[in-house]
Design goal:
Blueprint: H1 28-42, H2 48-65, E1 72-77, H3 84-92, E2 110-113, H4 124-130, E3 137-139, H5 145-148, E4 153-157, H6 168-176, E5 181-186, H7 194-201, E6 211-215, H8 223-239, E7 253-256, H9 265-277, H10 281-301, H11 314-327, H12 330-349, H13 352-368, H14 381-384, H15 389-404, H16 409-423, H17 426-437, H18 447-474, H19 483-555
Parallel strand pairs: 1-4, 1-5, 2-3, 5-6, 6-7
Antiparallel strand pairs: 2-4
Helix pairs in contact: 1-2, 1-10, 1-19, 2-10, 10-19, 11-15, 11-19, 12-19, 15-16, 16-19, 17-19, 18-19
Length: 562
Amino acid sequence: MTDPVPPAPAPREPAAVRPPQPRAGSGLGERLNALRELVGLSRTRLEPAALAEASRVLDEAAARGRLSRAYTTVAIAGPTGSGKSTLFNALAGTQLAEAGVRRPTTASPLACVWETSSDRLGAEGLLDRLGISHRDRRRAQLRDASHLGLRGLVLIDLPDHDSAVPGHREQVDRLLRLVDAVIWVVDPEKYADAMLHARYLGPLAGHAEVTFVVLNQTDRLDAESADEVLGDVRRVLDEDGMALGEYGEPGAQVHAVSALTGQGVAELRDALTAFVAARSAAARRLAADVDQAVAGLRPVYVADGPVPPLGLTEQVRWEFEDRLGTAAGATAVGQTAERTWLRHAEAACGTPWAGLAHWHARRRAERRGEPPGGPAAVEGTEETRPAARPVVAEAVRALAADASRGLPEPWARTVREAAWRGAEGLPSALDEAVAEAGLPQRPPRPRWWAAASVGQAALLAVQLVGLAWLVGTLVAVVSGEPWVPAALLAGGALGSPLLAWVCRAAARGPARAYGLAQEQRLRWLAAGCGRGRVLEPVAAELLRYREVRGQYVVAAGGPPGG
C-alpha cells in the first residue's frame, strides 16, 4: 500500500480480538448463544442441511469476532456497466480501480483502507479473511476532514455479479456473505434487473440496515427524470420487502449520484462517515444474518397453528398403559383369578356332597390325563400367554400420533421413531411380565371359610345322626317318634345347601376384588414395561423439543421461555 501523509492522531478503538458486541439491550450475544445451543441440541435429530446456514452464521460470527471492531468492511456490488469502479475511485478520491468501457472491467476484488500509519496492519486480518490478495490492497490518502471521517472504512470493489467470466459470480457471492455492509450500484437502465432483485436484493431484504442502494449515472438524466427513476427504485425495493431508512427509521439508504461528475458523491461519503463512525455495522450485519438463519429454521421448530401442549398428558399416558394392559390379557387374568377364588370358596364352603362329586370328577380327569379341575379350571389362561401383537402395535401407534400432534414434521418424526424403537421388544417384555406375574396357586383363605366348613361339617353330622336315628326307628331298634329324626335329617339336608348358597353369595364381592387386584397387578407390570421402553424415550424427545424450542425463541429475539 502507499503510505498517506499522517494527519494528527485521532482517538480510535484498539484492534481488539473481541467479538462485535451489540449495544446494551439488543441481546445479540444471548441470541448467538441460543442459536449455538439450538444447533448443538439438534445435530443428532435433524438433517445437516437443515442446520447448514445456522452453522455457517455461527462460524462467521466467531471468525469476525476474532478480528478488529475498529474497521467496517463495505463492498461495492452491482451489474455490468453500472459504474462501480468509477464510484469506488470517487469515494477514494483517487484513481485506484480501472474504469472503462471494456466489460468486465473488475477482474478481482480491490480493497481500499482508510487508516493512518499508526493503524498499519490493523485491517490485514480482515482482508485475509476476505481473501483479498496483497497486490489488490490500497490505502486511502487521508488528506482532509472528509477522508478522516472515513477512518476505519475498508471499501471493496467487487466484480460484476452478472459477469459472464467464470468465477466472478462465485467471488461476489462469497464476499457478500463476509462483509459488514454492501453498496449496491445500479444505473437508470438496470435498476429493476430481475436477477439482481431475485438473487440478491430480495433475499437480503432483512439486511436493510447494512445496505446502501446508489442510483449512479444521474448525469444522463434531467432533474425530473432522475427524481422519477429514484422514486421507482424505492418502489422496487419496497416490493422486495426491503425497509427504507427514511424519516429517521432504520433501513436501507437510497442515494442518487453521478460518480463521473461527482454529483451526490459528497452526500454519500457523509452517509458512509456516519455509518462507519457508529462502529456497529458488524453487529447489525450479524443480527441480520441471525434473523435470516432463524427465519429459515422456523419450519423446523415451529408448526403452523396453535402451539400444542409440549409433553405427554395424563390422558395420553393412561390410554397407552390401558391398551398395554389389554394386550397383556389383564382382563382375562382378572376373570380367571375371580373364578379361581370362587372355585376355592365353593370347595371350602360348599356342601360335602358337592365336594365329594368334585373329588370324584377330579380323579376321573386325572385318569384320563385331563387338566385337574377340567377345562374350566384353565379357562382364560390361553388369552394371556402371548401378548396381543396387534393391540400393542395399535397402542404404540396411538401414542406416537398423540405425542407428535402439532409438532413440526422433523420433530414429530423423531418422536414417532422413538416410540417405534421402544416398541420393538415390547411384546416379548409383556410376555415375560405375564409369565413372572403368574396367579397364586391358591388364593388366600379368609377366616369365614373355616367357619363355613365347620358349619357344613356340623350339618353333615346332623344329617348322619338324623339318618341313623330314622333308620333305627323304622327297624324298631330305637324307640320314639320317627318325625324327630326325620326333622333332623331334613334340617341338615336343607341347611347345608342354604349355607352353601349364602357363602356363594358372600364370596362374589371378595372374588371380584381379588380378580380386580390381580388384573391391576398385571396392568401395573405391563405399564412398567411400556414406561421404560416407550413412554420415557418419547417424553425425552418431547423434552428435547421443548428445550430447543425455547432456544429458538431466544435466538429469534423473544424472551427466554417465550
